[in-house]
Specification:
single chain, about 180 residues, three-stranded antiparallel β-sheet, about 30% helix, elongated
């Protein structure tokens, strides 16, 4: 079983194009597992997929992108569709990181970190993850240090994405410094 391919297919369906799969998503991003499986079965490559495969896909994934609960599945983050996955506020670690391309630095200094077409700003719990994210757009990315404790204390909301990713609606520039 190609769990990486399955994860990518499901991510695309849940995060970007639920209508292409005729999925009925609730306001928190949940889709009935049965509905997702029926949609996947239309493609001969996924005709034998069952709920057990979804569970294995989630368990084997390094990046926890999906969650399964009470017969429903959803993507944790990264949605480009115009709905907001509601998350519970949580106090973040004292410091978080954000990897970005050098060409975005001036804009970030001026406007802070904005979701840029996503639902949330993605922040990393460790420097290595931030660096890997930044390298998607720049071979020598800038690593930004976020004073998450001060931001939280001053009213900025943070949400846990997964064990390595934290989310925020925005992060004003006063909480950001270059590494």
């Amino acid at each position: 079983m190609n769990y990486i391919g399955l994860s990518k297919e499901i991510s695309y369906a849940l995060r970007h194009a639920p209508w292409e799969y005729e999925l009925e998503m609730d306001e928190e991003g949940w889709v009935p597992v049965e509905q997702l499986l029926n949609a996947l079965h239309r493609d001969k490559k996924w005709v034998d997929i069952c709920e057990t495969d979804l569970i294995r896909m989630i368990e084997q994934s390094e990046k926890k992108r999906h969650e399964l609960k009470d017969g429903k599945i959803r993507a944790f983050y990264g949605h480009s569709i115009p709905m907001k996955i509601l998350r519970e506020e949580q106090m973040p670690p004292d410091v978080l990181y954000h990897g970005t391309a050098r060409r975005f630095l001036e804009s970030i200094k001026e406007k802070g970190l904005l979701p840029q077409g996503r639902q949330y700003v993605h922040l990393s719990q460790d420097i290595e993850t931030a660096e890997n994210v930044g390298k998607r757009r720049d071979d020598k990315p800038c690593i930004l240090i976020i004073d998450a404790k001060r931001a939280w204390d001053e009213g900025i909301k943070f949400y846990l994405g997964n064990e390595k990713v934290w989310l925020a609606d925005t992060v004003p520039g006063r909480y950001i410094e270059e590494m």
